[in-house]
Design goal:
Elements (H helix, E strand, L loop, with lengths): L1 H4 L13 H20 L11 E5 L8 H14 L4 E5 L13 E2 L7 H4 L1 H7 L4 E3 L3 H10 L4 E5 L11 E7 L19 H7 L2 E5 L6 H5 L7 E8 L11 E5 L4 H10 L6 E4 L8 H14 L2 E4 L1 H4 L4 H4 L2 E3 L2 E5 L2 H12 L6
Parallel strand pairs: 1-5, 1-6, 2-4, 2-5, 6-7, 7-8, 9-10, 9-11, 11-12
Antiparallel strand pairs: 3-4, 8-13
Length: 338
């Protein structure tokens, strides 16, 4: 169910609970009970630190951007970090056997779009069995593991779990799937986390609501577009994106004074067809405009088409870097000594 719903989030998820949410409540109760039951399982404890970057809701909160930022910071510490991920809709992911992503050989169709992005920064393993991936990564030399998503996956013990929350939508109507966007009951998930990161503008008052619910760090991070985006301000651009919340990308462009003449949304993880590419090319030619998209979308484009598109990278800017450094320092202290 989660995999299907992540393609497009119903608008009623982000309004106070109404008739539809109420009608779906019995199913949501069952989903919540199953999620709570899963949390009772004990996962395999790896001999190296495991940092999980996850969320309580379906949809985009900036997990991949956050993982890439953490990889960079750990590399600066001289740490051999590997990533573990599910490989959503990856056709080469067969059963629980871990697959190491090879950017030179694999495509987004093979392993999913996020693993390809991560593999460009650090070794990345895809498998629904996170414990099997962890063992494979450690055998390959990893001394630190980052889980991209998988907060609800009980197979692998997490030494520290960072929960990301989009400040623009928060936890929605705070109902569990399918009545709302939560993957598990809110308090169940919060109790299993070690810190929260609010991404973007906190227009929903997430920090205020969490201060009465948790006693661990609440960090803040902003998603910033690369500085070179200024070169697009004087150009006609057509923006397209297949994300959980493509409007976030379009909004970020506008905030940076890049005003697209058209914004085209596709479903999350959309596999671009020849018809899609022909339509985009036709629009660009008609308007003498430059096509602009995200890195996550770019890896799903054929190489020949990718060369015609400007890819706009997004970086993370932490409001309290000292708190993040403290978390990373505490985890690296647990690393096995040579």
């Amino acid at each position: 169910m989660t995999g299907f719903l992540r393609l497009s989030a119903p608008s009623f998820w982000f309004r106070p609970p109404g008739l539809i949410s109420t009608l779906l409540k019995p199913i949501a109760t069952i989903v919540g009970l199953v999620a709570q039951k899963r949390r009772q399982r004990t996962g395999w404890r790896a001999p190296v630190p495991v940092l999980c970057v996850g969320n309580l809701t379906v949809g985009g909160t900036g997990k991949t951007t956050t993982v890439l930022d953490l990889i960079h910071r750990l590399h600066q510490r001289g740490i051999v970090v590997h990533c573990l991920t599910r490989g959503y809709r990856g056709q080469a992911v067969k059963g629980p056997t871990p697959l190491r992503v090879d950017p030179a050989r694999h495509t987004a169709t093979d392993v999913g779009d996020e693993p390809l992005l991560l593999a460009a920064a650090a070794p990345c393993w895809v498998s629904p069995d996170r414990a099997a991936s962890a063992r494979a990564a450690i055998t390959a030399g990893a001394t630190f593991l980052i889980m991209d998503d998988g907060f609800q996956n009980p197979c692998l013990h997490k030494d520290f779990s960072l929960i990301l929350v989009d400040g623009a939508v928060g936890f929605g109507n705070q109902c569990v799937l399918p009545a709302g966007p939560l993957r598990e009951p809110l308090m169940t998930g919060l109790a299993a986390a070690n810190a929260v990161v609010i991404t973007g503008q906190d227009t929903c008052g997430v920090r205020k609501s969490l201060t009465t619910k948790v006693d661990y760090p609440i960090l803040k991070a902003a998603l910033q577009m690369e500085r070179s985006i200024v070169s697009l301000r004087q150009q006609k651009v057509i923006a397209f994106a297949g994300l959980a919340r493509p409007d976030k990308f379009f909004g970020c462009l506008r905030e940076n004074d890049v005003i697209p003449i058209k914004c085209i949304s596709f479903p999350d993880h959309h596999a671009f067809t020849a018809a899609d590419l022909a339509h985009l090319s036709r629009l660009a030619a008609q308007h003498s405009a430059l096509l602009v998209t995200t890195p996550k979308d770019a890896v799903r484009l054929p190489e020949s088409f990718r060369q015609k598109v400007r890819v706009v990278n997004v970086e993370l800017e932490w409001a309290d870097i000292a708190s993040l450094d403290h978390i990373l320092d505490s985890l690296t202290e647990r690393m096995p000594r040579p």
